[in-house]
Amino acid sequence: MSSGSYYVPASSRWPVLGSVALGAMMVGTGVKLVYDTGLPLVLIGVAGVIAVMGLWFRDVISESRGGLYDAQMDRSFRWGMAWFIFSEVMFFAAFFGALFYVRMFAIPWLGGEGAKGVSALLWPDFVATWPLLSPPDSSIAGPQQVFSPWQLPLVNTLILITSSITLTVAHEALKVGYRETCRNWLAGTVLLGCCFIMIQGIEYYEAYAHYGITLEAGIFGATFFILTGFHGVHVIIGTLILATMLVRIVKGHFAHENHFGFEASCWYWHFVDVVWVGLFIFVYVL
Fold first, then answer.
1. Residues 45 and 149 in one domain
2. Hey, which residues does 112 pair with through a beta bridge?
3. Which residues of the chain register pLDDT less than 50?
4. Rounded (5°) CA angle 84-88-90
5. What is the number of domains present in the chain?
6. Confidence (pTM)
7. 91 and 222 assigned to the same domain
8. What are the tens digits of pLDDT across the range 54-66?
9. Which pLDDT value is given to residue 5?
10. Short-list 98, 113, 132, CA closest to 230
11. Is 178 inside a domain boundary?
């Protein structure tokens, strides 16, 4: 295309269908949490999101391979990805903020500390500690115990940190045209992502089966699963994205001087890794 042109994509149904799939997934999740039903709607929503992601990726890849994108479009993609990651930062900041508020303000108030310590009159026998194993309301059973951060959580932390290193090696290899090296290190990154997901699943099983850490186990259980659960979803999405990049590398896509699709997936994965480090510190260690 000419240097002064700007590609305007054709009308697409994927944004609408993606919104519908996300809506179904979230509504189903809400119904499941409140009424213990709605699992089929959740599964339909998840399948819809994955399908839309795949088909949307297909269209964007086809447009890119067709030479429809120029430098202006590349800048648009970069700004779009930057703002998307910023929105993700705000998303997790809200949940970290909730955890901070509960630990630093709400629980001490219920224990009689601070300007609002009068709240202790509600439950005079409440002992303000964190992790909160004994919620103030005796009708709510807290967790029996919490995870040691130096077992599965530490393993997962090392896995994600290693995956950032392997992905960086793959990216640098692509920059200099070492496609086979890029393919091998990227495959290792995808494998590490799968290992993280598997270990997180084992941890969730242990939480429910042996530790008494559930969504109903007071504020600790709720914040634990909200933070680690949303992060786990991001790891699954990131692993799917990196797997897509691996397929494209195998097929000979991307040039060493022009590969923003690959670079954007690196941005996303590194962001997910940084969030996990925060989770490891503030959810498991402190």
1. no
2. none
3. 1-2
4. 115
5. 2
6. 0.87
7. yes
8. 898 888 888 888 8
9. 63
10. 98
11. yes
